[in-house]
Amino acid sequence: MDTNRRITHEPLPLARILDGRAADRRRPRWVGLTPPLNIQLCPPPIPEETQQWLAESAPHGPRCLITWSRKVSECADLLPRATEAPIIQSLERSWGMQPGSLNVDTTRNLIWLDRTMHHLFNRDFWALVRSLELLNAIQDFTLSQIGSAEKDRRKLLQIFPYEIRDYTFVQLKPCEEPYLCYDEHLQTFSTHRAPFLTLSPISCAQ
User: How many CB atoms lie under 10 A from the CB of residue 181?
Assistant: First the structure.
């Protein structure tokens, strides 16, 4: 996957989303009586331009990263587009980034998933996990940034550059139905059941 592409449109309006959430907390709980202007605002959809770039840069095009299915592939974001502003700001400080520079609309934050896997991912049914050694190293780096002056903070990507890495599929919530994973030519498939230890490592550049 080409990790050098970056979308240059305006960043996600997090303040507007937070205002919408505040309005949602104030609105009546009777759906039929909900004033239209108080309905919670959702983040806008991923731009078509971004999805097109992701389809072109993905090694196998718009097919699910887990099942390799091409049926109803959807563009999924790893760091949610509705992530609240304080979390975004905390990540920028910890990762040695300039304030306001963390943009979730890049191919580095997006993967292709079929509709079912996307739905389950957004509801925390599963996750892709890097090696324990790498996770510990990233945690140590992040903790070392706490309390550092901005000029002394190191950049995360200088220490951990983007490259092809293997991820382990981890089931976080019970799932009774099996997953069907296809081969490259969609001619055959394999069946995997919870806890899905038979799934091969997932390789991607994230």
Answer: 19
Is 15 or 204 the better-scoring residue by pLDDT? 204
pTM over 0.70: no
| Backbone phi, psi, residue 57, to 5° | -90, -20
Beta carbons of 191 and 178 less than 8 angstroms apart: yes
How many angstroms from the chain centroid is the CA of residue 130? 14
Place of tokens 């009546």: 28
Alpha-carbon distance 61 to 70, whole Å? 9
The beta strands (E) that lie in the chain are given as: 73-77, 110-114, 126-129, 165-171, 179-182, 189-192, 202-204
Q: Which pairing describes strands 202-204 and 165-171: parallel, antiparallel, or unpaired? A: antiparallel
pLDDT of res. 16: 40
Query: In angstroms, rounded to a whole number, what is the distance separating the alpha carbons of residues 133 and 170?
Result: 16
Pair 190, 69: CB distance under 8 Å: no
Residue 124 CB neighbour total at 10 angstroms: 9
